[in-house]
Prior knowledge:
Helix content is about 65%, strand content about 20%. The chain contains 6 helices and 5 strands; from the N terminus they run H-H-H-E-E-E-H-E-H-E-H.
Amino acid sequence: MLTRKQIEEKLAQVFSPAQATALTDILEDLQRTELERAAEARELKQGLTALTTEVRKLTNNMAELAEAQRRTDQHVAELAEAQRRTEEQLGVLDQRVAELAEAQRRTDESLARLSQVVEIGFRELRQAVGNLANRFGFDLEEFVAALLPPYLEKHLDIYGLKLERRYFDLSGGQVEEVDLAGTGQRAGKPVMVLVECRTTIRGSEAQRVVNKLQAIRATLEGEVEMVIVAMNIHPTAKMVGEAGGVRMVPYSRINRPDDFAE
């Protein structure tokens, strides 16, 4: 069985310290309740066993009374005492049943509180993860917008490039969004640069991005360079990009200008 400290440490990996402590308290309450219910169940079993014994004695006494008409006052007193004990045990049994019902009610309340805390915790966790992912995505685009132009100037002779989020009209009234796009100059001629940013990219996602960039390029005139910048480029993504005429640029290269290398 896990100790309180171990339980709290495991919960703290997912929840805030306050939530982990609250969940640990509730789990301890549930554990104590289960132990109490087990003890009460054992007592109830013992009471039922004793009750069965007394009922059996009463049955024997009744059989003896049926077989022998004569009984002394002492036998009658014994029978009365046995009846009294039976009634006392029935009273104890009623009390145990009431206590078990109260324990069940407390357990239901604890489970309801636990369910509420877990639901709130998961909702806050999902929101935090979503906010973090959105924020990291926008930060990556901002870094790429600042760092990619010097890289392209050195390796592709594209000068005066400024990148920003752009929307392009495709055929059929469709509008396609590109993370970053801008126009620079190469050998005195304008060059449109289309850039998509990803933290990690594999073959299937690379194919989707390549298809999108190619569809946009088909609507443009003049030279067009298509680039995907990612922090982690899977070999399958690199093959798809090269086959589709899209340059796959690791973020580490544009983030360390002194280490630019093809």
